[in-house]
Amino acid sequence: MDCELILPLDVPDESRATELLDRVGSEVAWVKIGLQLFTRHGPGIVERIAARGYRIFLDLKLHDIPNTVASAIASLGHLPIDLLTLHASGGREMLRAAEAMKNEVRPSLTLLGVTVLTSTDAAGLAEIGIDASPETQVLRLAKLARAAGIGGLVCSPLEVGRLRETLGPDVTLVTPGIRPAGADADDQKRIMTPGAAARAGASFIVVGRPILRAPDPAAAARAIRAELTSA
Question: Of 19, 118, 154, 227, which sits 20 to 30 A from 197 (CA to CA)?
Fold first, then answer.
């Protein structure tokens, strides 16, 4: 199973995103558009970046009552997106409604259930009343999402091996919290190198700041892709 690199466009505005893509070029095939760019520029930015030849991971982490989430997916169905996030903690009915609407408006889209954010550790879970380790909570939410028909999951690389073993080869596993050897961890607490994540069974890795901050972003992306290939 090949593991692919996703570049998150975690920059303030479209001009910065365009500048970064000009520098990275074809060294990445996938990009992630999150709340920062989407709330500033609206759906049009998805279409404009897709028109440059990139595949789109839209990271909105939808979480609301079932009808509202389903309606949001209906509104997004015309956009050229391949991956879309929603919180698995929204519950079975929300997840089922989302998957049903996705199948109606854009069957090729893969919904990704977000389990536990990579910035959250056991202490963070305890603060919101969850008396479980991140690993236990991830597995619980992953099984819930899969039972509701969701095709993929977002998890830290530290859980990806267990999820791959438990859920099998068909589930799409997207892992943020990736840092090349020697890179700063920043605010990520559960991290792994690109090669280790690929060997553990990740379908996609999301690598942001080590590329965004590099003097030569294209070279940084190329090095990570080479590590994935060797893994």
Answer: 19
**Beta strands 204-206; 152-154: pairing state:** unpaired
Q: What is the pLDDT of residue 187?
A: 45
39 class by beta-carbon count within 10 Å (0-12 exposed, 13-18 middle, 19+ buried): exposed
Tell which phi-psi region holds residue 25, choosing left (phi > 0), alpha (psi between -120 and 50) or beta. Answer: left
Reply yes or no on whether 143 is catalytic: no
Helix (H, G, I), strand (E, B) or coil at 153: strand
pLDDT at 230: 84
The pLDDT, as a whole number, for residue 12 is 93
Averaged pLDDT in 10-residue chunks for the chain of 231 residues:
91 95 96 97 98 98 98 97 97 98 98 89 91 91 97 90 94 88 49 86 93 92 91 73
- Which of 61, 102, 143, 189 is catalytic? The answer is 61
Beta-carbon neighbour count of residue 127 at 10 Å?
Answer: 9
Tokens 């996703």 correspond to what residue? 6
For each of the domains in the chain, give its residue range(s) and CATH number, in order of start: 4-230 (3.20.20.70)
The torsion angles phi and psi of 48, rounded to 5 degrees, stand at -70, -40
